[in-house]
Amino acid sequence: MKTRNQAVQKTGFFILFLCTLATLFFLGTIIYFIVARGSGIISWEFLTQVPRKAMTAGGIAPAILGTFYLTLGAILVSLPLGLACAVYLCEYTPRGFIVNIIRISINNLAGVPSVVFGLFGLAVFVKFFNFGVSILSGSLTLGIMVLPSIISAAQEALMAVPQSYREASLALGATRWQTIKKVVIPTSLPGILTGVILSVGRVAGETAPILFTAATFYTRGFPKSVFSEVMALPYHIYALMTEGTHPQQQAQIAYGCALILLVLVILISSLAIVVRHKQRIGHG
Amino acid sequence: MNIGKIKESVYKWFFTVLAFASLLFLVGITIILFKEGLPVFKELSVFDFILGREWYPTYDPPDFGILPLITASLWVTVGALFVCVPLGVGSALFLHELAGPRQRAVLKPVIEILAGVPSIVYGFFGMIIVAPFLQKVLGLPVGQTAFTGSLILGVMATPTVCSLAEDALSFVPKSFREASYAVGADRWQTLTRVVIPAAGSGISTAIILGMSRAVGETMTVLMVTGGAAVIPRSLFQPVRPMTATIAAEMGEAVMGSTHYHALFAIGLVLFLITLFFNIIAELISRRFRLKLGAGR
Are the CB atoms for B55 and B248 separated by under 8 Å? Predict the structure, then answer.
């Protein structure tokens, strides 16, 4: 009996080990192919030049810059709104039924597919407000897409601040706003920051919401105003694979774009993990 | 003192207004989907839309039956589950139960970082490496099939499922495990009969959220499932899930046309499906908290 149990345990643990190995193998393969095939094309010129010869030569600078603008715009939209919403829900309203309902709806919206946010952006920003296919429409759409994640990350960080901190501050005669500004926000800052950085990573890699609100395959040079269409890294990969007339050379460039995007997103999420790690150490 | 009071209420109003502005945007999504999606039902009945077997939006007369698209989403999602549940939950169990502290310290962040890899990268990889590979190995007419889509989506959802399942496992109180060891159970028995049941609802939440991600995923399926809007008869046929249909056709649909409204209606269907998943996940995770709370 005993040996049978041991055999079962051994087999079970071996299967779990195989699962982990398979996971790492699949994910490792993807990264290996992107790095191995993409690194050949990366050069200073690739990063800083505009595309030439019908997208078969030159660089991807406008796409990198476009992604930067869209991400920056999205954070400018979602950070103030999301932070204010979280502060309002955590600090100004008593916890109860209504806050619970709001929390659940925010959670639900975080799970809405990104392409649905794209539809919303198309109907509201592109058509209704007549911003057209532009950086502005794309940033607003992406900003609203990450709003739920920013709200819940900030809310979680604010709720992790011990109640005694607030009470101590209020007992010293500080007002509610002074308490929020001097005690609650500084204490929860690393948590909020982690949430924001993770959102930046997500926004930078999203394609579906900008398909019909901001992105275009090719622009002459760099975007001139917030009302211009832009090239963006993730969309550029898709477009290189599905449009144009030189699939062979375009695939090369697509590998390069995928590598740059991968490195960018991995750097961003590593930063988030480092910030969170520091915060955990800080809290002892 | 009075100025201080005014300042306080100004700040309070400032936060209230911004908070409601963001809620307004979020409520706005629901309203817009209904407003732009419902007009399609002036042209055809809900029944014809959901259960119609033909999707030919640009024919004359056009057909707007989304059953092939729903079927495609369903097949691809279920296929993805067969990949991401064993891999994701298996790795989570390994991380939690078997990995040493040092292995965990490396693997946990690595998996978390992989969960953040953009879907376009998976789609690109699927299109340029996996699809041609499967076409050659399996001798298929085309490499972009429901099977390819399931495989890539499953691998993509694995880190998310793993990460969430590992969180669920770590919420199981240590005392549960110690009690099991104390009555003579070995590690495997403790894992399968105590830890997994205790974390069960947390793990199911992880799976449901992974599923919700797979249903809503757009770029990957757009690039690797092939895009044929017919009801699939085998896993090795090209299909066109709902998200891919919206992404592929919205650019051509004339604003205000039935096609345009039909695409919004598909968005509405997607919205309702993910809402359903999220509500289930929420209910389960609430029960989970109660159960473990009582156990402490």
Answer: no
Judged by average pLDDT, the poorest of A145-159, A242-256, B154-168 is: A242-256
In chain B, residues 16-55 whose CB comes closer than 8 Å to chain A: 16, 18-19, 21-23, 25-26, 28-29, 32-33, 35-36
Alpha-carbon gap: A141 to the closest alpha carbon of chain B (Å) = 10
> Using a CB-CB distance cutoff of 8 angstroms, which residues of chain A are in contact with residue B2?
none
Q: Which of B110, B121, B280 to mutate to test the interface with A (most CBs of A within 10 A)?
A: B121
- For A162-178, what is each residue's pLDDT tens digit? 999 999 999 998 988 89
SS3 B126: helix
pLDDT tens readout for residues B132-144: 999 998 888 888 8
> Residue B89: what residue type?
V
Please name the member of A82, A117, A206 whose beta carbon is closest to the beta carbon of B22: A82
Residues of chain B with pLDDT > 70: what percent? 97
- Kindly report, residue by residue over A179-192, the tens digit of the pLDDT: 998 999 999 998 89
Q: What is this model's ipTM?
A: 0.89
Residue B15 three-state SS: helix
- B18 vs A80, A107, A176: nearest CB: A80
Which residue among A122, A147, A208 sits closest to B218, beta carbon to beta carbon? A208
Q: Evaluate the omega torsion of the peptide bond into residue B141 and state whether it is cis, within 30 degrees of 0.
A: no
Q: Hey, are the CB atoms on A105 and B26 less than 8 Å from each other?
A: yes
Rounded to whole angstroms, how far apart are CA atoms A140 and A283?
35
Q: What residues in A contact B116, CB-CB < 8 Å?
A: 198, 201-202, 205, 265-266, 268-269
User: Is residue A31's pLDDT more than 70?
Assistant: yes
Mean per-residue pLDDT over chain B, rounded: 87
The answer to whether B274 contacts chain A (CB < 8 Å) is yes
Chain B residues inside the 8 Å CB shell of A242: 223
Structure tokens at B90: 């298996």
